[in-house]
Design a protein that fits this description.
alpha+beta; Beta-Lactamase; Helix Hairpins; 6-stranded antiparallel barrel; 4-stranded antiparallel sheet; 7 helices; rod-shaped
Length: 600
Amino acid sequence: MRTKAESILNFAGVLLESRNEKFFSGESPEIPQVIQNEVFKRFTDVSQGKVFFKQASKEPTLERNKAVDYEETLIDYFSNNRDVKQKEKFVVEDGKDYYILARPIEAEERCKMCHPTWTTGNIIAVEDVKIDLIDYNAVLDNNIFLMVLNWFLNIVLVLIVIQLFFHYEITKRVSRVLEVIFKIENGNFVLDKELEGELTHNNSTKNEFDRIIRHLKKTADSLQPVIQNVVQQSKDITFNASYATVKVDDNSKMVGEQNNVVKESIEFINSVSQSNEELIENMKTLKSDSQKSIKSVDEGKEMLASNMDSTDKVYQSIEKTVESVEGLRTLSEEVSIAIGAISDIAEQTNLLALNAAIEAARAGEHGRGFAVVADEVRKLAEKSQNSANEIKGVISSIEQSIGDVTSDTEATKEIFGELREKSEHLENNFNSIEGTLHTTIDSINIFQEKFDVQLEQLKSVFNGLNSIGEYSNVSLKNSKILDETIIEIMNESTKLKALSDGFQAVLNKRDVDRSVISPPDKCIIKSSNFSEEAYLFDANDRGIAFYFMDKNINHKSINGDQITISFYSDIHQNLANSRYQIVYAIDKGNNRVFCGAKTL
């Protein structure tokens, strides 16, 4: 349509140029626009009113060339866009659709003959071709129908060809690609069967399917060690998290026990402090009593010294008494001797008187007076003898009393001697007691000084224990938080291991899902060679996994041992009814041995 319009515009341009030459040269007086209008009116009539040509201006010579709205718009457009030489446009007039192709007309110098106000070079008009689109739309509709029909048939044919091609060539390969993708998706990277006969070498072909399969093979080969590493790492992480859970739980218990010990120590130190205060009071009382005892000892020593002086005086008096009694004994003995002499004289006198009486009796009457004298002498001699005997008895009594007094005095002297010795011994004891009391007071003073130092140290220990108690409380809280965090990490790592265990590459080796025990359950593993505490890590229908910690176990020596398991709790008691055989034992370092056992 544009070609047709351009042909009309080219023809109009040639016609206008030739008529202008004749008009401005004076060869023809006819106005070029009039001739142009008449020529294209016939052209319009020939086209049955479907093709129109018009030279439109805002200030035309002929009214027929008056620009309508869209033509004025075109004039303004060309005036503002001098480099544009042609413009297409679709308009609607009287309910009909038209195609417009317009070109600008510039004012020439010779145009000023008729239009003196024009400026050379300005766009003063447009020439446009207007074509009714009714035939074009009809042809277009018809062509569209034919094109659609043609396209439809072509598409059906292509689809049939594609279907056949897909059925025989692509579908099988797509199915194979999907099988490979599904296996990779499930973590199974053994693709030899699926890729049998495929070109998997680099640059073996540029076919897109071959390239897809080649890249899938590379992806599988690249992911296989990564997935295996992820599975191993997830297992190690879960094991370490399980180990950390046990250790943190043990640490929490130790921190709790430490906190209890610190509290008990604080209470004990409080009790010791109270006892120390009582001890201080008792030491003060002991010191005061010791000082009073020293005073009493001094008073006792003074009394003892006074008693010893009195004893010395009594001892001296007793010695004088003994001397006096000894003198009296001597006098008594002398008196006894004199009394003996008197008694002898009285006996002799009595004999003489008896002899005199005998001689007087012989003398008869002459001897009668002598007999009286002799009788008186005899009586006096008997009386003297009796007096002597009485005096002798008194002297004997006196001698006996003197002997008794002497014995008593000697005994008293010995008693006072012993009393003197005991007083001296008692004085020595008092001196020793006084020295001991002074030593005791000095020791109490020294002990009190040292005890004050120890009391200050005890206060420092008490303050330190209070600080330790506060830190222990913080540690206990942090330990609980750490315990909760480790349990959360253990649960998350368990989920990670469950996800990694979902890969077919893992399931193919194991043929069964595993259930990780979180937190690990404490148990006792027994065999014919050992019986040790362990922690259950995971369990399934085929067997169990567990680990020893802080045990000096040779992992090589227990491989193959048949074992039984028992639990402290009832959670996994169902596992205690089976026997197992250790199939692998791995040394994880730090006295940790990780074992797997199958159910027998």
